[in-house]
Specification:
Elements (H helix, E strand, L loop, with lengths): L1 E3 L11 H6 L1 H18 L10 E2 L2 E8 L8 E7 L4 E6 L4 E6 L4 E6 L6 E7 L1 H12 L16 E6 L4 E7 L8 E8 L7 E4 L4 E6 L10 E6 L4 E7 L7 E3 L5 E6 L4 E6 L17 E6 L11 E7 L7 E6 L4 E6 L5 E6 L4 E7 L4 E6 L3 E10 L7 E11 L8 E3 L4 E6 L10 E7 L1
Antiparallel strand pairs: 1-11, 2-3, 3-30, 4-5, 5-6, 6-7, 8-9, 9-10, 10-11, 12-13, 13-14, 14-15, 16-17, 17-18, 18-19, 20-21, 21-22, 22-23, 24-25, 25-26, 26-27, 28-29, 29-30
Length: about 425
């Protein structure tokens, strides 16, 4: 079911003015936090340009002093330098202008425990529009995309995906609610597949009496759900192959990875909401046991490292990073990481993985390879640094082009200092 709202106002909901007014007070708290961090977070020399190799701390982005509780996943738009951060318990998406270091908006309208955010730039929507024009069975009334980006936000409590329209190219994070797409339960990770031109959202718990777990495919030209990819258990992180034909999804309740292929088999607008046409495979993650719902959560995909492509999977019990062959699921290497990871990022230029963990640090893992007797190379994962963050900093976002890693630090207790986002540069 889809509910549409007239585009009659910008998303400045009740309490937003108070949130924005608290920014200055929040900055004072953050300054104190940063000073303490620099003094006690490592062998600092009291210099704000201090480098904790291999990540250099560039600065922080302060959240409102009222922000309290878990901070979830992020999205970043390099063209505007806008960073989007889901405040789970704040029921808000905080929008930062990274260039100026300012919070420019706090989107709250109809959000309920947001977990994931995806910014679909206008340039990509325009490319998709041009593709649709060339299709024989296109619908003329949906191919003319308005000249703005759209923000997709997934919600745990309502199971909805809220779609917001950006207010023009110079909107600086101001959005208008366009559509609510109801997936019924625990809408979580969200990705865009340029190969199919669809937005994918994981949802559903799978427990008795609850919504069956699946990944929904949403057509951004209409913002309607056009497909449903069934899964054996609740989906956590999922990634797409470079071609867009294969989807890899962590299903921690089964301690396995569900592999779905055949996504590109049809025209991107000739879909049916069925999973019957897909090819399914299941890989058990070595060293894990079934029946425990606290296993594999974050995932990253690297095509340029191994002949078949590589998956990096962050496991919570035990806390290890597993490197798998993306064609067979074969374990290539593994290493220990911090407790309770929620994001993993591949840095191809430096052959490193960044793993953010609730325990309070980012593990920087280096990949080395050497010739083997077989046709495959052998690999080794080595933690070269555990960069101090703060307890609760389990999510992150890595922008490849600028080499910046964003790590949110939540305010978990009312007595804690104000929340903020750490900004690092990979060296």
């Amino acid at each position: 079911m889809i509910r549409r709202q007239a585009k009659d106002k910008l998303v400045f909901s009740a309490g937003h003015e108070e949130i924005m007014a608290e920014m200055q007070r929040g900055r004072e708290h953050v300054l104190l936090v940063v000073i303490v961090f620099l003094h006690f977070g490592g062998d600092s020399h009291g210099d704000e340009s201090y480098v904790e190799y291999p990540l250099q701390l560039l600065g922080t982005l302060p959240l409102p002093a009222s922000s309290l509780g878990r901070l979830d996943h992020l999205s970043f738009d390099p063209s505007t330098e806008l960073l989007y951060l889901c405040g789970f318990e704040d029921s808000a998406v905080f929008v930062f202008d990274v260039g100026s270091g300012r919070l420019v908006n706090a989107i709250t309208q109809e959000l309920a425990n947001p977990q994931g955010a995806l910014l679909l730039p206008y340039t990509e929507r325009q490319r998709l529009s041009n593709h649709l024009v060339g299709e024989q069975n296109h619908r003329q009334n949906v191919i003319d995309f308005a000249p703005y980006a759209q923000l997709y936000v997934t919600n745990d409590e309502t199971g909805e995906v809220n779609v917001f329209d950006q207010n023009g190219k110079d909107g600086m994070g101001k959005f208008i609610l366009d559509t609510n797409i109801e997936l019924l339960e625990d809408a979580d990770n969200v990705r865009y597949n340029a190969g199919t031109g669809l937005v994918y959202v994981g949802y559903g718990d799978g427990a008795e009496g609850m919504v069956s777990p699946a990944i929904a495919a949403i057509d951004p030209s209409t913002n309607e759900q056009v497909e449903r990819i069934s899964l054996p258990a609740h989906p956590e992180s999922f990634q797409l192959s470079p071609s867009g034909d294969t989807l890899f999804c962590n299903t921690p309740n089964t301690s396995s990875i569900t592999v779905v292929s055949g996504l590109l088999g049809r025209s991107i607008r000739q879909h049916s909401p069925s999973s019957s046409s897909y090819n399914y495979n299941t890989w058990r993650v070595p060293g894990t046991a079934p029946g425990n719902d606290n296993k594999c959560f974050p995932m990253a995909h690297a095509q340029d490292l191994h002949v078949n492509g590589t998956l990096f999977v962050g496991c919570r019990e035990p806390p290890v990073l597993a490197m798998l062959d993306a064609e067979s699921g074969r374990l290539l290497a593994s290493c220990p990481i911090g407790q309770h990871t929620d994001d993993v990022w591949w840095d191809a230029a430096r052959r490193r993985i960044y793993v953010s963990a609730r325990e309070g640090f980012v593990s920087v893992v280096e990949v080395t390879s050497f010739p083997a007797a077989s046709s495959y190379a052998e690999y080794k994962l080595e933690v070269i640094a555990n960069v101090t963050t703060a307890y609760g900093s389990q999510t992150s976002y890595f922008d490849v082009a600028s080499r910046r890693l964003f790590v949110p630090v939540p305010r978990l207790e009312s007595s804690d200092p104000a929340a903020y986002v750490l900004i690092y540069r990979a060296l």
